[in-house]
Structures are given as C-alpha cells and as structure tokens.
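User: Teach me something about this protein's shape.
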Amino acid sequence: MLVEMGQSHLFHHWSQPGSDDDQDKRGFFDQVNKLDTSYPGGLASYIQNARRLLADSKEGKNPFHGFTPSIPSGEILTFGDENFVNFEEAGVKEVRNDAFVLVAGGLGERLGYNGIKLALPSETTTGTCFLQHYIESILALQEASCRLAQGQCEAQIPLIIMTSDDTNAPTLDLLESNAYFGMKPNQVKLLKQEKVACLDDNDARLAVDPVNKYRIQTKPHGHGDVHSLLYSSGLLKTLKDAGLKWVLFFQDTNGLLFKAIPSALGVSCTKEYHVNSLAVPRKAKKAIGGITKLTHADGRTMVINVEYNQLDPLLRATGHPEGDVNSETGYSPFPGNINQLILNLGPYIEELTRTQGAIPEFVNPKYKDSSKTSFKSSTRLECMMQDYPKSLSPSARVGFTVMDAWLAYAPVKNNPEDAAKVPKDPVTATFNGQQVEVWPRITWKPKWAMTFAEVRHKVSGNCSISQTSTMVINGRTVFVEDVSLDGALILNAVEDAEVKVVGPVHNQGWVLEQVDHKDTSIPEEIRIRGFHFNKVEQLELNYNEPGKFSNSS
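Assistant: First, the predicted structure itself:
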C-alpha cells in the first residue's frame, strides 16, 4: 500500500534483509498499522486527502469561495431574566439524558506549566483543580435533575475524556489518586487520541522521523478527532442504548462553563437543535471566531465557526466594504465561538455513520518561499471539533446560545509574557505584567448552586461584600441573609446541616500578593497566575453535625 501510494522513499535507507528486523522493521509496520487503523478510511485515504488539500493550499484556493455570509439564528440570553430562568430549569430537567465529553489532549507547557491542564487550579481561593470542579459540577447537575424527575431516578451521567499520549497516564493518575472526585469509576471513560503522519512536501510524502529512520514522524491531528474516536469506539451506540439524548463537548480550562450549561441545554431541548454552539458577545476583529451562516451560490447552506482572520476578508469580498464591524449594540452581529457544543445524539450518530467519523480537515504548511514548492518543516492534516456542522445537510437544525462572557467564558490560554500583551482592563492591580480588575473572591461548591434560581433562593436581604473580601461556601444548605462582609469568611457544612449566616463579618482577610513568575522556588501553578494569598485573618464556621444552625445564635 505504501509503495502504491508513492511512499517507497520510506524504505530507501533500510538495512539489508535480516538485520534490524525485530524491533526496528517490525516496529515500523506496527506504527503503520496504528496510523492506518486510527484514521477514517485508513492511511491511503489520509494521503489522498493530504494531496488534495496541499494542492488547494499551493493554489491559494479560498475554502469559502462562492459563499456569502449572513447572521445565523439563535438564542441570545439575558442573565437572570424570566426567559433565562425558564431555560435553566428546562436544562436541569434534561441533563440526566446527557453525556459530557471533555477534550483534554494538551499539556500546559505554553502556559508555563508542565503538567496536564486539568490539574491546574480552576481558581486560587480554594485551589480546586479543573477536573475536580468539572466532576463535582456534573454530580450536582445529576442530583438536581433526578430531584426534578417524575418517579424514581438513578441516572449516572457519563463523563468521557479524550486524552493523548502526553495526558492519558497523568489524567488516569489524577482520577485514581482522588477516588474519581466522587464519581463512580464506571461513569468515566478515557479515549486516547492517536497522532497522524507528517508530510514532507506537496506530494504528501510521509516524513521520516529525524531521530529514528524506522519511524514515521507524527504530530497531533487536532481536537476534531473526538468525533471519530466516539464513533469508532462504539460509545455513541452505548449511550443511545442507555436512553441518552444529548452529547455536550467542552474544553479543559473553562472554569465558568458549568454556570452556562443548564440554560444552554434548555435552549437545545426547547428549540430541538441538532447542534447548539455556546457563544459570547464578540467585538469585531477580536481574535475569536464568529458563528456565521454561509450560503453558497449553488444553494448550499451551513452554520459554522469562521475564524476571525477569515471573516473580515469574506465580508469585504461579498458586498460589505467595511468588513467585520460592530453593530449598534457595540458588538459584532456574529457571536463569538467558545468551542463548547451540544449535539442531539440521534442525528449525530446518523451523520457520523454517513461520514465514518471523519471531520473536514485543513492543512497549514509553512512554505520556504513564494513558489510554495517546499516546506520550512513538515506539516500534517488537522481537524477541529467545531467543524462538525460543515458536512451537515441544510435541513439540520443548527443554532447558537449567547451568554455574557463573565458568566460563561474564562479559559486559561496565555503564558505570563503573552498575557501582558492582552488589551488592558480597568486598572486596579498588576500581576505578571497584566493589569486587571480585582473583584471580591466568592466561590462555592457546585452542590450549593448550579443555577441562578438556586443562588437567588439562598441569598436574601441586603447583602454586601467589600472589594477585597473572600467568601467560600462549602455546603449544600447554606443560606446567606443580610450579610455584610469585609474580610474572609469560610463556611463548611456537612450534608444534613442547614445553616443560616447573618449579620456583619469584619476581619483583616486574605491579602493578594504579587509573585515573580520567573522565581522557580514558587510552584508553577502559582507563578503563572502571578499572585498568591497571604491568609492574614479569617472567620471559619464549621458545622459538622446534622441540624439547623445560625451564626447569630
């Protein structure tokens, strides 16, 4: 197959027959077999796709040629209004029919952290890591959904994690060493993503590994692989047989996401969307893709993410001379894509069965010069999770749900040097060279509240928290009434303790102090944040027995 596909160069440097057979030559074919079985259609299909995409790249072919962009239809939510609360309630009821898929194939190296990103603290106040936060949020939604179910409910919401060679073992270790953070081990499934072959030239000649002549050089294929893995593993059929209806995809470092999931899932089930992209308001030309409806001259339509550096020229080329500009609202009419998707399981299985799990790919070679005949270094085909809708028929119901960024989107994306170059917020403090607003630190366990309605139910009266204060709520039935906090307040309550916290709390609190991100004596997860807490003084209230309590008594 390799020779027929123009890959005979892979054997030119092989030693004579009978030497290097066991580990090197047999190892080569073991690798080829893995590359062949892990790609939809096999390695021959990969090479054919690569030649087509490389030819398009050399010719400078525009992937959006013939398409006209327009504003898609979707749901724009206003936090806290009746519509938002109704969608939240619908989403909580429906979430027991959902499976969560976490895309977690990358390390934190570009952030200045050498571990897996899931092990990073999602916030510094309690130090809860992302994976713990995600699992506790899913468990809280699972319990809340069962409470709303008619009759008996024993739902166990599945969590599927896509890992890579780099992250699989550390992810499993993080789960096992923490008793799966309260989940049952059989609720969690790890799917390991394989890499794809690198390409040396426009003829899609596979690249020999520079350190081992009996290996093909490989690189990651992109998070779009999650779709083919779900399909080839048979997991989607297992989910469908279990009566599930939805699959929700999310990224490894967006700690705010679960504040948005109930309402977004409520939109999906109410509107009967096949695909629902979570989105945030987007400033024109900002480095975030825009969700766009594209209509081709031949009548084809699709609703997909268009990268910001492609959206502006596309608009200019199709009758919008000003390009990507803000509307009268102060934002672009094209919502900002945050790579969180909710898919209707039935149509999803039908589509992946049709495509055999393949997702539209792209190639991005770095050419040596304008002749585009040779590369600076090897390239490979890539695919993105959010490009799944590209292959859907025009009849597919594809929409979006927009929520404010403060509610739904706070990914960990930059190392300290790059973060300092990000446009500045109103200045109150500087950490790692980045000027930021500093707000009160208020955190709670997911079991305390997963929706706005729950927060509204548990907070009452005239409450105020000073700008420098810290508040941690770790308990299910904790009510906050007429609290005036200036300092630090830590509330811990066991499962059957009902606690009412009232009145003023004043102490010296926790002080934010800068740290030098170049100081290697400080843990990496602290250095990349640029600050730590000096816990000068706090009021810690612990309720370790069942019953009703008040801090005023």
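Now, about its shape. The CA atoms of residues 123 and 129 lie 8 Å apart. The chain has a mean pLDDT of 92. If you'd like, I can walk through any region in more detail.
User: That's plenty for now, thanks!
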